[in-house]
Prior knowledge:
The chain is α+β, with helices and mostly antiparallel strands. The chain has 7 helices and 20 strands. A hairpin with a 4-residue loop joins β11 and β12. This is Autotransporter domain-containing protein. Keywords: Signal.
Amino acid sequence: xxxxxxxxxxxxxxxxxxxxxxxxxxxxxxxxxxxxxxxxxxxxxxxxxxxxxxxxxxxxxxxxxxxxxxxxxxxxxxxxxxxxxxxxxxxxxxxxxxxxxxxxxxxxxxxxxxxxxxxxxxxxxxxxxxxxxxxxxxxxxxxxxxxxxxxxxxxxxxxxxxxxxxxxxxxxxxxxxxxxxxxxxxxxxxxxxxxxxxxxxxxxxxxxxxxxxxxxxxxxxxxxxxxxxxxxxxxxxxxxxxxxxxxxxxxxxxxxxxxxxxxxxxxxxxxxxxxxxxxxxxxxxxxxxxxxxxxxxxxxxxxxxxxxxxxxxxxxxxxxxxxxxxxxxxxxxxxxxxxxxxxxxxxxxxxxxxxxxxxxxxxxxxxxxxxxxxxxxxxxxxxxxxxxxxxxxxxxxxxxxxx
Length: 403
């Protein structure tokens, strides 16, 4: 691989990584009111937001507040409206989350104890109620780490399944070809209505185990993702296992299974997601152009998880359909030409209601192989993509290496 080309590729990829999200809207806001005074505060964690209605916090945040006087808080919980109210002079709290159809009352010897009960409720003590809140979040908000938006775990697992069955690493041909190791890094920003931004950086390792005397192969990959919305962080990752089965020389089918986990203490969310999918990859050439047609259908299930103080269950089941077409052309001649590729991918989400149920992406990339031997890079690709759908837009940059 030409050293200058690789350095240029790496520099360009770095430039495409997300910018600072300092101006992004915080995930949680609270408008505190008592004795005719109101003040607004922003928070990067749900626990800090709910703690604002404890008696101790109200005394410091609202100068006019008096112990045991009626008080209220109007919350925006990462896009969900909620209210917490002390309707009388006592320590009883009333919680309302209209989009989830929830109204609950909490009591304690003091207002601090009542507020602690609300915190425990959101950590899982609320049982089925918490599931309703989480399902409302993926239905009505754009920054849930588990599902509902293109940068959530469920969506990224769908992307990984589609890529496993259609990208150049999985589609390398030739009986008895050497096993192939791949690495990719991508970064970008998603923007949704309401002023919410999501910055994401992802890295993925992938490997192809080839069968002797056959073009069939076992494909494994391990993508890991970091996402930030405002100052709230979440992590997710998955492990995928697929088997590429050639039907004819230019057509293959890849059934795959995948398991992933996502969690965010800041956002009060965690889940395990399982999936099974089938991807078709058909390729053909015409008059110097190279075409690819990919189609995928997968079933994705988000289940409960218990981590630390949290014990929550999303209880979501969705089908993801991804269909894409790519067109490539070599810009130079020789055994390792420079190639440009344009691609369009359409994603549809069926099943439980999600904030983003249709998402399209347009991508352009440049790739180059090398014929310098197995101890250097075999292939490198640099690309950018723009995605849009259901009040969500995203710009991504990606660097992929195979060796």
